[in-house]
Specification:
The structure is a homodimer of 372-residue chains. Chain A has 372 residues and is of the alpha/beta class. The first copy, chain A, has 8 helices and 12 strands.
Chain lengths: 372, 372
């Protein structure tokens, strides 16, 4: 039970405050299932000084509410780009970051977050604000530091996560900051889902990785690869526990299995949206090799490409895009969320996409391979 | 003497602390001259984790020392890009910013600074730091805020200037922060140079403008145009006092008068280096019109293009590049500094370039025009 100590330590870290109640462990339900909704690319906080910015944020609230009410998931993963920080004209984006949890929190559903490439970007001053028309009225809070002014310099990843944890009085956030040696990456941590029957045994491990972007390059580092290898070896040395992976930016492996952009998606790939090229990480420093070598790793889930929602096999792994959930961000494709439902015994993974209008599509049963 | 109050207020602001002695006013010397050295594009702080970064900073120290000892100027203008903040792996670039003044301070010469596009850039993590080789040993000071970590997010303009003023115990910095309505631009202020004879009368006005870049677009805004118009009308309503202008990034007007890149520089332009295209501001929001309309405005001095060092006429204004002074930044052309020498009566402006090796070239007497 070596994992126990690590998980307890991680939970203590995630709580971030002595005296708060331990959050209930994640666990497969009585029916042997565990259902996760993926909210990808919400892009809250765009153009707050116009009508359309706040209106689209309300749209994002509605998408999440519709998905949560239809699916009643056990867990939510916020798959990065929760905010469009380069468009957020306040020095601190944590207010928008917090708003993203509102529909999930109000339903009492636990969640976890990972970072996308927009979450800690510095504010990009619109060029037209320098024209004779000038700067529109924007929220510029009175600063206690006269020197900080309205510098709008973005909110660091650490500050976003620590604010999330600090504000989570209900104990629903399972987000955590990874070890310091992985900085500037922050959202690197592992969550376990306990067995329905064996009260202390994990039946699923979920690895969250920071795929960079924003304040640093869009990569998963060699240091993260080493961390994953040591964590997985420590928590799951015999590979008995199935493992799922979540990060924001598709790895270059996605480009290898992608259907040609704009073409029909055909088996073995499953999906409905194939409207652009994969926009992959800048480099591959070994994470895909490390994952492909572990039969216990079943699938990777990413966001980032708003115009893609497919799953394709890669070796014996399943590479899946989520579905663009937020009304913020580029693209006019209808919004929705990928849902991932696991059965514990025998372990299986189903997935589909739940749309804002209530429909579902792109149902798939993940091929977990003979050796998996 | 309306300007008196404004100048005193600006001086009080620049000192930034009650109880410090007022700095001596800038004044034409006994021989009726006032000599300014322009230090452009020093780019301190590059690649501090290698040998070549610190070595080139020592080179920049030597260039400035050589110019100062040869020219003995009355004043130094730091013309932006004092640091390459996107390459500075410490959360606070003020140490490098301060180092740029060292040769000037040790000789007791007053100075002023304006911002370039590199001074408040956020740190750009080198992509290779994410390879299996990892991050080289870098200075990562123990933080009092656990959440700030090593986020290396750049140092805002306001913080750089306030640190400069705060550390200036000798009262040599004449830098100031402009009015809040011009933010995110910061280096917007006016300095006067008093007459040699008339003890309280200014004989020259030097306008410093923030031409943007780094944390916001590379522009001079409509708000800055209005500020310049009201300041110049207030300080110099009859245009009796000659005026010089300093900013970092050439305006688009420079592209109109530029000799074709790589071609010989011929009259009426004067210079030695014409190795690249002008890299102008993103837009022109009226500053050039405002300047061209004032016969009292004689010349504009900019940096930014390391491969250009010419002066060319534009209408009745003289548009001048400085000379790349720092060993940091792109380009291998020999380093030097533009020197600008004014005579008070009759007002005239000479300029030349002083090289690191002691030679001078590109002597020019500015044509101040019949109406100027």
């Amino acid at each position: 039970m070596r994992w126990c100590l690590a998980v307890l330590l991680a939970a203590a870290l995630a709580l971030g405050a002595v005296g708060m109640p331990s959050p209930a462990p994640l666990r497969f339900a009585q029916d042997g299932r565990f259902k996760v909704a993926l909210f990808a690319d919400l892009h809250y906080g765009e153009n707050a000084w116009t009508d359309w910015g706040p209106a689209q944020d309300e749209g994002s609230d509605r998408v999440m509410a519709a998905v949560l009410d239809a699916e009643k998931p056990d867990f939510v993963v916020y798959l990065g780009d929760l905010v469009t920080a380069n468009n957020v004209p306040i020095p601190n984006a944590t207010l928008y970051w917090d708003r993203a949890f509102s529909p999930t929190r109000s339903r009492g559903i636990p969640w976890a977050t990972i970072f996308g490439n927009h979450d800690d970007m510095p504010f990009e001053w619109p060029s037209e604000w320098f024209s004779p028309a000038g700067v529109p009225p924007v929220h510029c809070p009175p600063s206690t530091m006269p020197s900080s002014g309205c510098s709008f310099r973005g909110t660091p990843r650490m500050e976003l996560t620590t604010a999330e944890i600090h504000r989570d009085v209900a104990g629903l956030s399972r987000s955590s900051v990874g070890p310091q040696e992985l900085w500037p990456g922050v959202s690197n941590y592992v969550l376990q889902v306990l067995s329905q029957e064996e009260r202390e045994d994990p039946a699923l491990l979920m690895y969250f990785l920071d795929s960079g972007g924003g304040s640093y390059p869009e990569v998963i580092s060699g240091a993260q690869v080493r961390w994953f290898q040591s964590q997985s070896q420590f928590l799951n040395p015999d590979g008995r526990i199935p493992e799922l992976i979540f990060w924001h930016i598709p790895s270059t492996a996605y480009t290898k299995v992608a259907p040609k952009a704009m073409s029909k998606i055909s088996r073995p790939c499953v999906g409905s949206l194939n409207m652009e090229d994969v926009a992959p990480q800048e480099a591959e420093w070994g994470m895909m090799n490390a994952l492909a070598k572990r039969p216990s790793v079943k699938a990777i889930f990413v966001g980032h490409n708003h115009g893609l929602d497919w799953c394709c096999p890669y070796d014996e792994l399943c590479l899946c895009f989520a579905r663009h959930t937020g009304h913020g961000g580029y693209g006019d494709w209808p919004r929705g969320a990928r849902v991932v439902e696991m059965s514990e015994k025998p372990f299986s993974v189903k997935s589909w996409i739940r749309m804002e209008n209530g429909s579902t599509h792109s149902h798939i049963v993940l091929d977990l391979g003979t050796s998996r």
